[in-house]
Amino acid sequence: MADATPRTETEDFQRLARDELPRLYAIARKLVGDDAEDAVQDCLLKAFERFEQLDDPKAGPAWLARVLVNCCHDRGRRRARRPQEVELDTVDDFSLYRKIAREDPFPYSDTLHLDFLGEFGTEDVREVLLRLPGHYRIPLVLVHMYGYPTDEVADIVDVPQGTVLARLHRGRKLFERKLWDYAEEHGILERGRR
Amino acid sequence: MTMIGCDEAIRRLWEYLDGTVEGPDLERLEHHLERCRRCCAELEFTEELRRFMRESAPEEVPPDVMARLNATLEELRDR
Fold first, then answer.
1. Do B76 and A13 touch (CB under 8 A)?
2. pLDDT, tens only, A147-185
3. Fold (topology level) of A7-79
4. CATH 1.10.1740.10 domain residues, chain A
5. Distance between CA atoms of A68 and A62, rounded to whole angstroms?
6. Is the ipTM of this complex over 0.85?
């Protein structure tokens, strides 16, 4: 059977995907952790199959991100760890700033809040993100880490922009709360008190 | 103008930094921030949190992973 994708399209796809690989991998690490490589592999194969559906070459990077997010979503549904239960009723009023000020984990510091954040490495942040339910994690990662506008995220996850904004609102508060929980569990607060 | 308290103000700080608080809500929030040092400090911390998230974004692609992903792309040529 003849190749359905002409050689030039294959090369166009390879060029687009090669340029985007670092960003795709970084996003996937934040969304599915150790499954990132598999998610990007899924994305490359699925996107190649559908490449002829891409009308505007300028939309290529966002289109690839959309395919990737769907692949991550599928993987997350199948086998990612279950996000921890969260009392959503109380999270809207959580303030990490106030929690740090009240608990004072770095009693000898003049820059208490910055010191708290300074204790988190990239891997810690990834772990915290993976504790959030996917529908909060995805907009948080795309908007605040990779600079996607909220209307583009709405397109990527296929929900109205208002829903993205609402999920961002709650996702950010959840992220604050989970940073604190993670610090408690991993001895970050104890280190500061020494 | 109706005044807002600290709880209401801190609930909206992220949105304020997004530029999505508008009209009377914006006026009330800014009025509060002009008078409340603690909420101003919290606003600065929220800005730090945003920076913290941006700076946590980069992830290095391990060379072996990059090699396998590139190999997948090369194989597409022959499909």
1. yes
2. 999 999 999 999 999 999 999 999 999 999 999 999 999
3. Rna Polymerase Sigma Factor; Chain: A (1.10.1740)
4. 7-79
5. 10
6. yes
